[in-house]
Fold these 4 entries.
Entry 1:
Amino acid sequence: MTTALQLTDEYIFARDLRPATTKTYLSSAKAMLAHFGATPIEQIDHRSILAWRKEFLANGKAKRSWNTYSSHLRTVWKYAIKHEMLKHTTVNPFKETCVTPPKRPSKILDASLIQRSRNWLETLEAQERCTNERSQVTPAWFWLAVFEVFYYTGIRLNALLHLRYKDVDLDKQMILIRGETEKTHREL
């Protein structure tokens, strides 16, 4: 009897996935196994997936988590159907099982808040320089520099944390963002 985990293993074997992506696929398959247990895969249809979704969400789990499971398992099923690993069906039971997640709050800050923050950091930096005493945020010059790098580049926190000296070219006014530090895994 084929299981969701076996199908997922076959899919992963056929792909060159990053470790984090592999982990997500496996956790999706394990969540499915936890719900369906020893139910033969041939008995898992669209309606049973919808029932799982209903129970999953009723237990207070996030819609985004469900969508991750649904998306990854839909991909595994598509692969299994295409490669004739599932003989009993040509219909993907995960098709149209995603839900609309709640809207995320805007990541854009009001211009006046940005200016007030900049003014506050500039004031702290000037106080530290004049009095040689530490401010609330110290060293203020450093945090002002971090603020300005975020503001003018739009760099993500992880990329900023992993910057190396050789990634900064002051002559060309360029910062190399390495792919391994980026959410998209692309070098910028």
Entry 2:
Amino acid sequence: MIQIFAFAVAKGLAERNVAELTLIKKEAEKKRQRHTLTGLMTIVDADTTPIWLKRAIRLALASLQRRDDIVSWLKSSVDLENNTIKVSPGKTQGYDNPIHLQIKVGKALREVVSECLRSPVASPYLIHYRPKARKREQIAAKDHWTSVTPNYLSNEFSKARDAAHAYDHIPATERPTFHGIRALGAWLYEQQNFPQEYIQALMGHADAKMTKHYQDGHTEKGIEYLEVGADLAF
């Protein structure tokens, strides 16, 4: 319609392009500000923040994993005896060389993982919750009735952030989200003098030299895990 009215204006059949005027102009996207450790810990310490969300925040901060991998992390990936936890970052699984990490668990990460395992809610996931109501359509849309979807995690984090008044001094559209925890964690690792190679490997940004991926054998495929550490101190 815009093109038609543009032609009409050019031919003198219309005074203005009225079709173009109906478009809603998008405001410039607001840039999200960075998390601070003080701000994030305010959310973690707040009574208004659900226990499961506190664990998700701490898990993300120590492990540097993405939101989607935090909510899909299985309890079966944990080996407390050997002090390791495995993860295959979902974002890399479509790559030619998908990444699989075996993380050596530091003190802070072990604490939150242990809390997840001790939860009385029977769930296959580290991060889980007991819904107040179990609606059939909601249960059908999830892998397990206790699972947390990525969008639900993001929305609940934003609610908890504002309820804790952690970033009231920042305009609502610029306040940091759950996604920003990963960047704060990487910065904290850097401040604690961990080398960039260590941080990048933990974030799943490993290059071809350090990435171990599916290897084609004569019989079946096996997963080779890249061993990394997560020893951030809170």
Entry 3:
Amino acid sequence: MEVERDLHMMKGIDQNSYAKNSSLQRTITTQASPVIEESAREVYNRLSPKCFMMAEMGCSSGPNALLAISRIIDVIDEASQSINQQCPQFGVHLNDLPGNDFNSLFDLLPSFKNAIEAAKGSNFTPCFVTGIPKSFFGRVFPDDFLHFVHSSYGVHFLSQVPNGLVSENGEALNQRNIYIAKTSPPELHKAYYAQFKKDFTLFLSSRSREIVFGGGMVLVFIGSFDSDDHDSIYELLGSTLHDMVLEGLIEKEKLDNFNIPFYSPTVDEVRKLVEDEGSFALNKLEAFTTDWSVDTSQNPEIRAKFVGKTIRAVAEPLLTTTFSPAVIDNLFLLFETRVKVRKAEKRDEYFNIVLSVTEKE
């Protein structure tokens, strides 16, 4: 797996695409909107730039990419009117890895522009949009270029599968699993945290150089209640793959050596890394939970299918780096069955972290 090449959501607009299966992520962004809007408003009131430069990092390719941007434009328009000032122009920079489906994203821009003009008039301040295909683990923009950065459901992905997942005698440490699970050895958690620490620290230091003094950033990502309990949907997906090994549908060695480049930190881990990196003042660090399925149907099969399609839109491109595309349909049919059984036994939720910081250097 080459993460920079292979990590992207399902492309296009067909029934398995991320564009058609990202209402969960939309719900998360909506729930975090009060923090996003408050931070953007404070940055504008503090800096009053003539052109408000913002970046959507890990934008992906569906309609959600422009959701937070639209809310920020509305908030700043309202803030400028409240002090009888001309609304600033907007520079919007959509960033993701090179494998992202930027073409589908750009197809949304005319409707984005039309919606702004319909709400605010054809003479509303200009909004300039660019796409930047580059990893955000490292520099993306010039020094002191941005006033505001937003990223939702992006920074929990890692720049690579962690090192150290193989023992000295060459055996995979995480057999039967694809992420940290109850049966994973302590060494696995240490390796995953070490990679997240390295990546997140680099993310913070890079954004510190790019955000002006007094600028802001809001990050939303999946977290964990406890550092010793990473019970997640990827554990259930891993056990489904293991069932397919037992049925002879996939090779055991392939499963044993496949690991998701993902880490869900705790609130305390995030706080410590922000404080240790030192470039940002911590404004808010909050958490909220969201059910695996935001589908309002009470039908267990419909809810399980919703969860399956949501995870497939995220994970399929990574899975097909190791497993044959021919097994993917069967995998997610089995996965939906396991989701339905599990949701009948307990309420499963994503633990989400919202981080708001201000550049202080």
Entry 4:
Amino acid sequence: MKNIVLILALSVSFLGFSQGNTHTQAGGKFEGLAMTPPMGWNSWNTFGTSIDEKLVKETADIMVSSGMAAAGYNYIVLDDGWMTRERDANGDLIPDPAKFPNGMKAVIDYVHSKGLKFGLYNCAGTQTCAGYPGTRGYEYQDARFYARLGIDFLKYDWCNTQGITAKEAYTTMSNAIKTAGRPMVFSLCEWGDNQPWEWGKPVGNLWRISGDIYPCFDCEFKHPENWSSWGFMKIVEMRKDIRKYSGPDHWNDFDMMEVGNEMNDTEDKSHFAMWCMMASPLVAGNDFRKMSKETLAILTNKELIAVNQDKLGIQGFKYGAEDGLEVWVKPLSDGNWVVTFLNRSEVPKKVNFDWKKHNIKDADFGYEADFSKTVFKLKDLWKNKETGSTKKNFVADLAPHDSVTLRLIP
């Protein structure tokens, strides 16, 4: 009799364990929020932690009045430094009352009233990169906090993360956002150290592929703390063979742009063209209140933005390079191609490209352009005018770091 009772007890016990282990919670990112690369503005590149309510409202106003919003820029994202150094008695984050005297909700409501969307920053570790409270151990609480505020975008960094794994940490926060119930674009800012392109698609809408950008063409800026920031062309070529992982709702993120920050207009133009070619999120990082008309014209070039926002969502690739002159190509959804000729060198270069000698093949996605069989019209996307066809060589003079971007139309 005792044996029968013991067997029954064990059966019930194992059944209980089985039921517990088969409980699953709906997780994963909110799908469909970033079918084209997100566009907007982030505070970090120019302002660091020196952010406040006035800056946000002025940026929102200018984003609308300047035509940036009409061009597609619709996210305003506050980066590190928006909170106090300690959580409240309930463990909630506290927007810094000195920086946001009317509270964060009032700021977010103002941004929303302009027809724009709003994003915040936090970090998977115990502290953010600037030493503010991180989210480790507070994932579900913080997600509910963001949902109550009404944010639309969460940038999630990777500082102070000793002892945890990136895939698990980002998956936990992704599930927390889903459980909180408010759709938010989830931006994985893990710097590419743990190959987020291999596991990030069900977790987030975009993932950083590098460390921080620096406002230079092709440099490495070494910080005293033993880490580096990178010129935009360094970032473009930092990772090999990852373009196949990028596409609608799961983007390789090449970092916020430095257009309008310290480089010359020629370099800014090439920077913007390459971000469009790479199907990277277009997130401005300059001070809109001091923006020149040249910078505004670069950031709002509708022809280049259309390349970036093409619904096919394929990241471009380098087709060839010779003597400092590079050729980058990108297939589009309508059978068009985009070709950028880039002078990577420090001296002027002449482009003389014989189309008939080239057959472009996209090994990752299967697209092909055979110029010996198909004639394409050429449209210069900076000048917004047609400039011949592939029947004749394309000839152009490029200053150092300059580029020309053509749309090829069959």
